[in-house]
Amino acid sequence: MYKYLEELRHFWPAVLYFFHQLRARAARSPDLAMKCVCR
Question: Rounded to two decimals, what is the model's pTM?
Fold first, then answer.
């Protein structure tokens, strides 16, 4: 279990960065974001 948490701790910044990029892209093109969300 501890090993799994250690792995997650390493990957967490990548996950946050991914969501940040996703939100930035959604902010640039809201219509596209709505299409993705509503589909």
Answer: 0.46
